[in-house]
Please model this.
Amino acid sequence: NNDKDPYLRHGGVFALAQIDDMSALLAAAKDSSAAARMGVLLALRELRRPEVAMFLHDADMRLVIEAARAINDAQIEAAQPELASMLGSVTLPQPVILRALNANFRLGGQVNADRVAAFAARGDAPESLRVEAIKFLKEWAKPRGIDEVVGIWRPYTPATRDPAIAKNAAQPVLASIVTSGPDSVRLAGIDLESALGLEDSGVLHDLVVNSAT
Model:
């Protein structure tokens, strides 16, 4: 089919998922055809299998995007750590980075918050995603029960988290965030400082009196 007919592809994916032959699927995951690998990926999504994470490193970027969507949007929890680890790159497509940010937010540990803070401080990262990263840090301790990417009800366990995690992650990078970069990023950084109780009066004073910033 070579992805020419989405209806035929859907039928094939449905059949593969119903057959549920993992050894055959994993063998086909290495097929030279990107269309065949896509069929395997979508079948693994239907089966909610963590092995779908292997496609995060596929040579075809379409499969990388689809794998990120599968893990986040279909709630394949066992594959979340692999998706979260993708946040180190700013050259990935934005749908992948957004879901990697969300995976770190959902996992909620210190290493996850550190990744999000480091991304927020990167001058080479997309502006809108830097703002999103800062928003995640602001809501870290009390996340809403709605998935930030797809908007579905997806409550967190536990419902509240240690506020020190976001503070520890944000403190080393906040000064650089609020003094450089696009206005939207700096404003979000100032808001984060206030929300976390990390106001640096020296930095904020310089922002007021220095017309160059």
